[in-house]
């Protein structure tokens, strides 16, 4: 097969036939480069180009700084870091055959705490989905200050608007790649899952996707206007400018990243607790989607309870020991004391001692183990369960329980561990510093990838609809 050329609304693109026999297109612009007056503004369609655009190499990524985890190589999940270039609002596409017709489409939104990551990371290889008979699309979107900081005179929830623009691009163009624009499954992990959950509750998304998979995220990880504006003021003070889009457009990307790093340092962020005393990011990221605009006119969880997204089939799930990724490699699991555990939760929760003592603090359990269990529930599992219980459409729930053997098995079923299995790409994270360790189970990867494909193709992953905890699928 020769490298195929596919027309799009902005111009023709040339893909590449891979050794696995599928066709891959990388770095196709779905929106114009967010520079000049388009910074902190609504995405607009990519301008047309002449001739055939080559898309055989990964394109630029959203501006970001790497924050490595000690002892682990998470590059296959997070990417290699910032690849500078203005045209980074792009999609990658894998298809079994551009000339095919009406194949199910899966659109993936990467995670990274709304601060980093890329859809072109090695673990998000779409080969397995394409070989099964689906078209996979991965999305790049604006992050951090560029994507999730509300500024006077600017557009809010820019990162979510980018994702909506990518979905519009899919609807208009995916048939040329063999996909069915009437059968689109939107899925994401971590902050990507928060994004999917937010779009599930957004009035701007109906018709853009028909199924959704939310992996280790939920619609409660959002901020109110007051907390978001408080963050904008602190970032502006760090830059010594006013918190306006006009002022921020005059600041270089490197300066923005420096200010972002300053906010991420201990004590650098303002108090981001809401009126009830909760920091909905639980210290994992100061940058979250904001409630109170046309993308999220009301809390997305409330909208979902009221029926938003009820016509969208849903899978929602998490890993059973999410927070081990954050506490084990740093040594905090063993080092944290009872008082330190309470103090660390106090910046995010109005009753930290009550929560931790309910999980067994002071009753012979180590403070680190208590903190892992409590935060896994507070940050991930509780919100996932709430989403599954209150989504008014067809819903399936899972929990990923296979534990990594790395670091003497102490990582357990930690955050992000399911992703290489979902993409049936466990080799990408195997090895002495890979998240999966040596010889991860290939059968589990085939099972999860197959379940996600079946859901995209038929609306059922192959297990029972959610009707309480005893109907949850356990992956191990």
Tally of extended strands? 13
Task: Look at the structure and give the mean pLDDT.
Answer: 96
CATH topology: Rossmann fold
Indicate the CATH class: Alpha Beta
Largest sheet: 10 strands, mixed
Low confidence ranges: none
Order of helices and strands: EEEEEHEEHEHHEHEHHHHEHHHHHEHHE
How many domain units? 1
Classify the beta-strand content into a percent band. Answer: 5-15%
DSSP summary: helix tally: 16
How does the overall form come out from the CA principal axes?
globular
CATH architecture descriptor: 3-Layer(aba) Sandwich
Strand order of the largest sheet: 3-4-6-8-7-9-10-11-12-13
CATH H-level superfamily? Alpha/Beta hydrolase fold, catalytic domain
Q: Please compute the radius of gyration using only Cα atoms.
A: 21 Å
Straight-line N-to-C gap: 39 Å
Q: How would you classify the helix and strand content by structural class?
A: alpha/beta
**Estimated helix fraction:** 25-40%
Region (Disordered): 41-73
Protein name: Carboxylesterase
Family: Belongs to the type-B carboxylesterase/lipase family. Belongs to the 'GDXG' lipolytic enzyme family.
GO molecular function: cholinesterase activity
């Amino acid at each position: 097969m020769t490298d195929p050329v596919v027309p799009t609304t902005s111009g023709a693109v040339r893909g590449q036939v891979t050794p696995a026999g599928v066709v891959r297109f990388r770095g196709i612009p779905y929106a114009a480069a967010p520079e000049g007056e388009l910074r902190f503004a609504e995405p607009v369609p990519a301008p047309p180009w002449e001739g055939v655009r080559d898309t055989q190499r990964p394109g630029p990524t959203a501006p970001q700084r790497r924050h490595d985890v000690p002892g682990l190589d998470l590059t296959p999940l997070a990417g290699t870091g910032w690849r500078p270039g203005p045209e980074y609002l792009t999609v990658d596409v894998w298809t079994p055959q551009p000339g095919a017709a009406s194949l199910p489409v899966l659109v993936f939104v990467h995670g990274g705490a709304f601060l980093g990551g890329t859809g072109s990371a090695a673990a998000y290889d779409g080969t397995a989905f394409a070989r099964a008979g689906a078209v996979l699309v991965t999305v790049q979107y604006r992050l951090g200050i560029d994507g999730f900081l509300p500024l006077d005179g600017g557009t809010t929830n820019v990162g979510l608007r980018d994702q909506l623009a990518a979905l519009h691009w899919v609807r208009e163009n995916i048939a040329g790649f063999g996909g069915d624009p009437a059968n689109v499954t939107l899925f994401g992990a971590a902050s990507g899952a928060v994004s999917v959950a937010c779009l599930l509750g957004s009035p701007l998304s109906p018709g853009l996707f028909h199924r959704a998979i939310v992996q280790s995220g939920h619609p409660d990880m959002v901020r109110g206007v007051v907390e978001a504006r408080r963050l904008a003021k602190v970032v502006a003070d760090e830059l010594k400018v006013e918190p306006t889009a006009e002022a921020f457009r005059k600041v270089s990307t490197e300066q923005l990243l420096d200010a972002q790093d300053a906010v991420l340092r201990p004590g650098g962020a303002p108090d981001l607790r809401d009126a009830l005393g909760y920091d909905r990011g639980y210290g994992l990221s100061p940058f979250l989607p904001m409630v109170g605009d046309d993308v999220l006119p009301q809390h997305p969880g409330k909208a979902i309870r009221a029926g938003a997204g009820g016509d969208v089939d849903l899978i929602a799930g998490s890993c059973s020991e999410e927070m081990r990724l954050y506490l084990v490699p740093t040594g905090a699991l063993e080092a944290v004391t009872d008082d330190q555990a309470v103090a660390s939760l106090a910046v995010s929760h109005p009753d930290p001692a009550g929560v931790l003592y309910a999980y067994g603090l002071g009753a012979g359990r180590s403070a680190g183990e208590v903190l892992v269990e409590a935060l896994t529930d507070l940050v991930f599992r509780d919100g996932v369960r709430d989403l599954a219980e209150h989504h008014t459409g067809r819903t399936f729930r899972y929990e990923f329980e296979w534990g990594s053997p790395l670091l003497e098995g102490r990582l357990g079923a930690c955050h992000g561990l399911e992703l290489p299995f979902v993409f049936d790409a466990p080799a990408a994270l195997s090895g002495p510093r890979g998240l999966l360790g040596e010889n991860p189970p290939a059968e589990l990867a085939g099972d999860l990838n197959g379940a996600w494909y079946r859901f995209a193709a038929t609306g059922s992953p192959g297990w029972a609809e959610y009707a309480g905890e005893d109907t949850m699928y356990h992956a191990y």
